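Memo to structure team: turn this sequence into structure tokens by end of day. - J.P.
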Amino acid sequence: MTEFWLISAPGEKTCQQTWDKMNMATSRANNLSTNYKFNIPDLKVGTLDILVGLSDELAKLDVFIESVVRKVAQYMADVLEDTRDKVQENLLANGVDLVTYITRFQWDMAKYPIKQSLKNISGIISKQVTQIDNDLKARASSYNSLKGNLQSLERKSVGSLLSRSLADIVKQDDFVLDSEYLTTLLVVVPKTSYADWQKNYETLAEMVVPRSTKLLSEDQDSGLFSVTLFRKAIDDFKHKARENKFIVRDFQYNEEEMKADKEEMTRLSTDKKKQFVPLVRWLKINFSEGFIAWIHIKALRVFTESVLRYGLPVNFQAMLLQPSKKNVKKLREVLQDLYKYLDSSATIVDASMDIPGLNFSQQEYYPYVFYKIECNILDFK
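Reply from structure team:
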């Protein structure tokens, strides 16, 4: 399972005893979970009022940071397109996979100095992740615009003869150009109607040049034919062609325009390649930064909630449990038995149960401090 439970319980005679007791009940005796100590440094406590206010702020910040981390990961998957299976190996925190980072968590003293107040530390994290979110929006907008324009041009050069660009199909020799009286039209004819076309195109209007049709290209269903006629017969010819299910494409041969389109496609393709590598690098770095910030917020929440619940002086053990998939329910029951003395009113609440008037889906409550961490950031369908 990539799900972890970050819990805390008050220190007994020593915090080591709290750890041993939990570990014995869950891991050694029953093999219900794999457990790790979760190291939280001695943070500045502040006043009770500040802790109560901070508890709500941290809950909102937790949700916000998780959403940003998931957005960065999802956008990396979008950018990597054909190599989506490689996304997971790019989703690292501090150069290691997410499970390793969490299970070996060490507070980053340089980024988040513990001499600062809890409020200041949460402010630093909030500012940092808000910046990542804003930068992501700007970078994604720029890259998506480029990608969208390129895809739009690429789409024009594929597909059916009825809709695709004809610029790369036709040549200058296929047209009568610079004539005051004559012009060349391009007509899409269903393959089943080739015989009808050859038999009737000269009589669809007056002034069609005899034997002027030529098959220029074919797709699965149709062929593209050229036909030369006098300019004054164009409207009449188009009308009669439509009646016979022959579609005249609206196309003017213009060498400069066609060249400009090709150059634009080359430019967009080059720009996309130029932006790709720095963008992926930015996503990797900022996914890591965001994820690290998220786990630090989890640590702050455990610290704050533990002080509010268990009181001062600060004396609790934070523990990280990786539940065994088959034993989630049993693990809950064992933890309940172990810590029910902390709060007799806290019974196990299944978040999936829908009890009218009670909204537990947002916040499960247990007698011990509990926060869930889901390491499966990307859910590939």
